[in-house]
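<context>
A single protein, sequence plus fold
<entry> Chain with its tokenised backbone below
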Amino acid sequence: MNNQTINEIYKRDLDKVFFSFSILSQDVFFNFGNDYIKKRTIYTIIGCNINGVRKYIASIFEDEYSKSSDWYNFLLSLKKRGLEHIFFVSMPNNPLIKNAFDLAFPNISYFYSCSNIINKLSHYMSCSYSNNIFNHLKLIYFSYDINEFEFRKNELFLLYQDSPFIIDILNKEFNYFSSFLNYPLFLRKHIISFYFIREINKNLNVISHSKPYFYNITEFEEQLIPTIKSFELKMYSPKKEWNSIISYLYKEHKDLLLCVL
């Protein structure tokens, strides 16, 4: 990103085609002035372009995007910067976001992010327990078929049978998972990107606790710049694996990919 500022990042052109968008949530304390401090949720959006490199898209306050039209207008602003197509989006279970993506990118496939589950559970358990659930979730999301998925899910539920609220939180998310199994395992791994997402979530958590509160979204994003520099400089997938992704997409999107490869 060549030492760009946040304002410069928002002015740069976007790639025409993205493999995926990931929407991550993080709670921070925000100072409205006059000693009025309130917890707010920030959505950080990171894209993975067709070359397998992550790109920072934006960070926004959830409560400023309370309607599907707000999200739709945000996506239109990305189109004005050159974005035309996104294959997949991994996002929180939020119908406002889903409706906006469906309208702006009618052919997109969306999945509810496991990082959202971890963030919910982190309010009730230690980091070690969260990491334990993370490892179980990885096995569940990477099941070969519905039978293995049910086995892994029940295995996790048995482990936390004394914490019914955890099971209910997990089960609510798993209800939307079955369609995800229709995609090949190698594709699912890159959409979910467990280790990359865990690393980013960790950094977002550190930033959220680096100050007692923030005065604006830019102040938060400036703390994020070192992380952005790090992930925009490299691929997070071996080239052989990424070649499998392109080959898979090329079968149905030949004309689109020929314009950008």
Summary: The mean pLDDT is 85. DSSP finds twelve helices and five strands in the chain. The CA atoms of residues 90 and 111 lie 5 Å apart. The chain has one domain: 6-258.
